[in-house]
Amino acid sequence: MDPRTDDVAVEHFMDWLRDAHAMEQQAETMLTSMARRLENYPDLKLRIEQHLEETRQQARLLATCIERRGGDTSSLKDLVGKAVAMGQGLSGMFATDEVVKGAMFSYAFEHLEIAAYRNLIGAARTVGDTETQQVCERILAEEEAMADWLERHQDSIAARYLELSRVPGAQAKR
Ligand SMILES: [Fe+2]
What we know:
Strand content: under 5%
CATH superfamily: Ferritin, core subunit, four-helix bundle
CATH topology: Ferritin
Number of domains: 1
Order of helices and strands: HHHHH
Bound molecules: fe (ii) ion
Largest sheet: none
Oligomer: single chain
CATH architecture: Up-down Bundle
Helix content: over 70%
CATH class: Mainly Alpha
Structural class: mainly alpha
């Protein structure tokens, strides 16, 4: 590989790593708020709390990868700013069917993360950063497991929401 191409690859790789780190920080905020608000969906709440722990660890692992390469984790990228806005818009926190929209948005967000880690795995391979590649493969597996869980539970969440909506005085939306 010629040195100029290599520089470009390394630059993108670092950008994508910082994006992923900021994305995990955003995920932590969203998952924290969802877990805190949920009352009548114990399985969902438990799974979100578990993924929240994974997410915190993912952010730490990414920070270690960035710092090992001499970068810093302070800069928040544009893409992430957009994701934040999208997250706030779609998470439907104030919707009457908050839990249904929240699960839907989480499913979409997990897939954004999955794509981001696939990019990073390819880039890590390109620049020869085996350690970061392994970290991203581990994180990818956690995101896929979360997406899979949400995929298998979306219908029962919607059904429970509709059921609770019929019960007078019940808090169906969360
Ligand atoms: Fe994540």
